[in-house]
Amino acid sequence: AESFSAQVIIMSHPGQIQNGYTPVLDCHTSHIATKFKNIDEKMDRRTGKTIEANPKFVKNGDACMVTLEPSKPMVVEAFSDYPPLGRFAVRDMRQTVAVGVIKSVVKKEAAAKGAKK
Mapping DSSP to helix (H, G, I), strand (E, B) and coil, where does residue 112 land? Predict the structure, then answer.
């Protein structure tokens, strides 16, 4: 996947999470550093309604929609299409900082078989 958008719930982060934050994302069996490219909206955890569009930061207890960009190629799917590849944990400082589900994926074009890089 080139990038994907996900609903994330921040559980235990000591400070604030801003655009550009790069923790390790554990999705299925892969553990890859992934950048919070853009925090699209902060939302109410119970109703799912948007509280704030394009917030500067999110903190503990917040739910948000985020555009994530993996640093290396990563296999993910939307939670609605394939649940095991649609769930992930965000880890930093050896603890789980947040959890989330993937809403949509921007797939990378597959290279032709046998093509040299």
Answer: coil
How many C-beta atoms surround the C-beta of residue 73 within 10 A?
10
Pairwise CA distance, residues 9 & 63, whole Å = 4
Amino acid at 38: N
Please state, as a whole number, how many other Cβ atoms lie within 10 Å of the Cβ of residue 80. Answer: 11
Core vs surface per residue 47-64: b (16+ CB within 10 A) or e = eeeeeeeebeebeeebbb
CA-to-CA separations, 43 to 8, 11, 27, 28, 50, in angstroms, rounded: 10, 15, 23, 26, 4
Can you list the domains of the chain with their CATH numbers? Answer: 3-106 (2.40.30.10)
pLDDT digits (tens, 9 = 90+) for 75-106: 999 999 999 999 999 999 999 999 999 999 99
Pair 43, 51: CB distance under 8 Å: yes
Instruction: Render pLDDT for 5-58 as a digit per residue (tens, 0 to 9).
Output: 999 999 999 999 999 999 999 999 999 999 999 999 999 999 989 999 999 999
